[in-house]
Specification:
protein folding chaperone; alpha+beta; disordered C terminus; 11 strands; Chitinase A, domain 3; 3 domains; four-stranded antiparallel sheet; Alpha-Beta Plaits; about 45% helix; cell cycle
Length: about 450
């Protein structure tokens, strides 16, 4: 087998492979004889079909089958010989394909980039620290009460935060417009559900009142025919209701799966959940920042095959999240451009993380894997069953091991970097982690 390699552009390689005719012809002849022993053709006893007839009837198909196997085998043999690691499958083009002649084909494919990690010691990383205070706990409990709030009709003027039941109809230049009418609609004043000025105009109304609201549709309103238009809404108020917060009692606690708990036990459980959420949020922010700095410091080419594969994953995730579980939706209908930047970043992170693991000979810490599984299991009623389930499910166990390995990579990066610890509030700490590139873009915009 003869092999020649050409670097066409970036990570792309073209490998020309020539396979001796003898290898192809021998494999074809052998396959034809095997077929003759098992094929059934009218007029011949089983196993007695002449090879010439089998060759005439099935020879072309058998040759293509053999060539397919030879291409696959010889491509990977050649890649190993040339010390190339393909990133994705090759595109194959046959150059010569005649019986009795050497078989030649060209494989075009991408390779993984060669990575020389930059020194991470000059990188500065901000490590946020936060605690759950009594005030944070009180705010959370108040939020939980508001989520379970009831509504009581009141005989007074509406205030912000009240809910009004209204009938309304909108007019532009004296003409009613499509979509501008509603009956029996519940509207919480201050929820910013309606266009600017609508809810504010209902502060002070009482049941039975009729009022005209003069408002202007925003310039960026979704309906093209309404953008920037002045409108008048005629509103009739049916009722005004005030929010009624539930008491902290057993009935309230049961709504969160905490039957039979005291108020102190409930607060203790809420605080524990907040602390778990806080720990995870701080961890994710630190990981996002460390990986973001790693990508910024090490600019690498990424194989398009890996990017395309990641785009497909992101498309599927988007459909699962927003497609309502509709299995008939085709992920490819989502524009590739929506996910390209995110996919490139994910692939870059993955390649660089693997290089950090390789350079530092990091092995997954099974004690940390166990600790992570136990932490996850602690939130269930039967923790040991959950632990046993993870260790009995290779796919789920591999996921945990991968997460732990990422944590170990972060630890390795932090050990090299300049870490600046910063105290932040609970509310700031639990805000979603922001990709490094986006954060820097906002900082530059603010500076301008």
């Amino acid at each position: 087998m003869q092999v020649s390699v050409e670097a066409t552009s970036g990570l792309e390689r073209q490998m020309t492979i020539t396979v001796p005719a003898e290898r192809i012809d021998n494999d074809v002849a052998k396959r034809v004889q095997e077929t003759a022993r098992r094929v059934r053709i009218d007029g011949f006893r089983p196993g007695k079909v002449p090879v010439k007839i089998v060759q005439k009837r099935y020879g072309a198909g058998i040759r293509q089958e053999v060539l397919g196997e030879v291409v696959q085998q010889s491509f990977y043999e050649a890649a190993q010989q040339e010390k190339l690691i393909p990133a994705g499958g090759p595109n194959i083009e046959f150059k010569t394909d005649k019986a009795g002649e050497d078989f030649e084909f060209v494989a075009t494919f991408e390779v993984y980039p060669e990575i020389a990690l930059a020194d991470f010691s000059e990188v500065e990383i901000e490590k946020q620290n936060a605690t759950v205070t009594d005030a944070d706990l009180d705010n959370m409990i108040e939020t939980l009460r508001k989520q379970q709030a009831g509504w009581d009709v009141v005989e007074r003027a509406a205030e912000e935060g009240d809910r009004v039941k209204i009938d309304f109809e909108g007019f532009i230049d004296g003409e009613a417009f499509e979509g501008g009418k509603g009956e029996g609609m519940d509207l919480v004043l201050g929820s910013n559900t309606m266009i600017p000025g609508f809810e504010a105009g209902l502060i002070g109304v009482s049941a039975g009142d009729e009022k005209e609201l003069n408002v202007t549709f925003p310039e960026d309103y979704q309906a093209e025919n309404l953008k920037g238009k002045d409108a008048v809404f005629k509103v009739k108020v049916e009722s005004v209701s005030a929010s009624s917060l539930p008491e902290l009692n057993e009935e309230f606690f049961a709504k969160f799966g905490l039957e039979g708990k005291t108020e102190e036990e409930f607060k203790s459980e809420v605080r524990a959940n907040m602390e778990r959420e806080l720990k995870q949020a701080l961890k994710m922010k630190l990981k996002e920042q460390a990986f973001g700095k790693l990508v910024k410091q090490n600019s690498i080419d990424v194989p398009s095959a890996l990017v395309d594969s990641e785009i497909d994953n992101l498309r599927k995730q988007a459909l699962q999240q927003f497609g309502g579980g509709n299995a008939n939706l085709d992920p490819s209908m989502l524009p590739k451009e929506l996910f390209e930047d995110q996919a490139k970043r994910r692939v870059s992170v993955g390649l660089l993380v693997q290089e950090v693991i390789k350079a530092n000979e990091i092995k997954v810490d099974e004690d940390r894997v166990r600790a992570q599984i136990e932490e996850l299991a602690a939130t269930y009623q039967e923790p040991q069953q959950v632990i046993d389930w993870y260790y009995g499910n290779n796919e789920m166990l591999n996921q945990i091991q991968s997460l732990v390995m990422e944590d170990q990579v972060v630890d390795q990066l932090l050990a090299s970097a300049k870490v600046v610890e910063v105290e932040v509030s609970y509310e700031d700490a639990i805000k979603p982690a922001q990709p490094e590139a986006e954060a820097e873009g906002e900082e530059e915009a603010a500076a301008e």
